[in-house]
Specification:
Number of domains: 1
Bound molecules: zinc ion
Order of helices and strands: EHEEEHEEEEH
């Protein structure tokens, strides 16, 4: 039997992603682009760049650095939202198979003849946590 009121937030991966998303949302609105050696805010509705974000002078690999910085403005929020979506889908819940309390993944658990499979943290959360180098 599953106790829905015991559903909890999935750990550090979601927290890290929310913090990254919050930092991105505080930064100058995107998209950003490269314009004459500078990373600039681009306004598609106006068809022009309007604010300097970073000047790339002095950097030996300025083109690659500028491309990375400009793309990060869009990449970070997209990837953070993906991590949050996965973490919200794979959350720990408490199950009592055979009267024994166990933590299982809300999304991945399923009943077996021996109780329930899908122990917490599930493979998805372990992979996500390993990639982000955080605890599941
Ligand atoms: Zn899962």
């Amino acid at each position: 039997m599953m106790h829905r009121d015991e559903v909890r937030e999935c750990g550090l991966a979601a927290r890290d992603a929310r913090e990254a998303l919050e930092r991105a949302e505080k930064a100058t609105e995107g998209p950003w682009c490269i314009d004459h050696g500078r990373v600039r805010q681009y306004r598609p509705d106006l068809g022009l760049t309007i604010h300097d974000i970073a000047s790339m002078s002095g950097s030996r690999s300025w083109a690659a650095d500028a491309e990375f910085i400009a793309a990060a403005r869009s990449d970070v929020p997209r990837l953070a939202r993906a991590v949050i979506a996965v973490a919200e889908l794979h959350r720990p819940v408490t199950a009592y198979p055979g009267g024994v309390k166990r933590e299982v993944c809300e999304e991945c658990h399923y009943p077996t003849q021996f109780g329930v499979a899908g122990a917490w943290p599930c493979a998805t959360i372990r992979a996500l946590s390993d990639a982000l180098e955080v605890e599941a």
